Amino acid sequence: MFTHERLVKQLSLPLAGGLLLTLLSACDTRKPESVQEVAVQGVLSAEISRDGSFAVVGSIHHGGSGWDLQAFNRLYNWNHQSGQLSTLRSVALSGDGRRALTVENRDLVVWDTTTGQALNFWQTGDKVLAAALSGDGSLAVLGQQNSQAILFDVNAGAERQVFAHEAEVYAVGISDDGSRVITGADDFDAVLWDATRGLPLHRFSHDNQVKQVAISADGSRILTQAQREKAVIRDAVSGDAIATLPLEYENFTAARFSADAGELLIGTFQGDVYLYRLSDVSQIVHWQAKGKNPLAAGARSGAILSVAFQGGSALALVSDGSFQRFARP
Fold it and tell me: Could you tell me the pTM of the whole model?
């Protein structure tokens, strides 16, 4: 059913008086140091591996693909039906980067990123709107249109837990060990769950639909943001707010904590990428992704779909089909 091809060469808490934060926001907007193309007509879904070496992409007109971002080669064509290009609106990578998940409506395929081969094919009970994989890729959390998120055993192809909301679940995250799941939904709630027992640990009420959540790899910190609201970073044990990021009216489309949960990368619908240090909630740098057509009105990029840390750089995959690298100051 699914197909794989190996391609050899193919392609807030402001600082004192708010002064420093204001200066950084106003004056330190930087451009990418490199821009490369992964899709001509744009991308529906994408995720960069934690180490920044690999990406899974669901493009508008080229189907699914797996990319070596270091050599910048399209390694694999990943589609669910032979001879057809899949429309992948959700994709995910395991924390160790060894497994990829591609989703087309209710159909799931798990891929080995080292060989490109399909490992499993499953169908869920309802349309999947968001997906995330645990550290080793053995568990997936799937946000669904039927107002539920499910914890899915990838190896067995079975549901382990069901996490109920009262509206569509558009944002999900899972800790590396699979013990904690964060969900965000159109019912204005974000919920941190004990994934082992299927019980809510903390429920966070917002004033709008929750479209972005994130959890650190160790499960110690979480982020929730509702549309047109400031994002809140919380301690995952107590549920207490650690900080509120001073980015009101920015709609986040990507977020990732650093390996030690000390920094946070954020991508927005408008093509902005922010790097925050969480110890004092200070903005380290603000980048603006470059639009593919510099002559277009405003010359803005598309939305940031995925961000990653890599040494002295930040990486982003953009909905206009570009992969962009940003140098840290």
Answer: 0.90
Sheet order of strands, 180-185 included: 169-174, 180-185, 189-194, 199-205
3-state secondary structure of 329: coil
Give phi and psi for 24, each to the nearest 5. -65, -45
Give me the helices (H) in 78-161, please: none
Q: Calculate ∠ Cα 70-288-59, nearest 5°.
A: 55
Taking the C-alpha atoms of residue 269 and residue 301, their distance in angstroms, rounded to an integer, is 9
Residues 6+ apart with CB under 8 A from 245: 12, 230, 231, 232, 233, 266, 276, 281
Q: Can you give the length of the chain in residues?
A: 329
| Structure-block tokens of residue 242 | 């650690």
**Helix, strand, coil percentages in the chain from 3-state DSSP, rounded to 5:** 5, 50, 45
Query: Cβ atoms within 10 A of the Cβ of 82, count?
Result: 8
**Phi then psi dihedrals of residue 42, to 5 deg:** 110, 170
**What single-letter DSSP state applies at residue 17?**
G
Helix, coil or strand: residue 299 = helix
What's the pLDDT tens digit per position in 94-148? 999 999 999 999 999 999 999 999 999 999 999 999 999 999 999 999 999 999 9
Whole-angstrom distance, CA of residue 256 vs CA of residue 266? 7
Q: Under a CB-based contact definition with an 8 Å cutoff, are residues 172 and 183 in contact?
A: yes
Q: What is the pLDDT of residues 213-254, one digit of tens each?
A: 999 999 999 999 998 899 999 999 999 999 999 887 889 999
Residue 274: in which H helix or E strand, if any?
strand 272-277
Nearest Cα neighbor of 87 from 95, 79, 77 is 79
* Gap between the Cα atoms of 132 and 143, Å rounded: 9
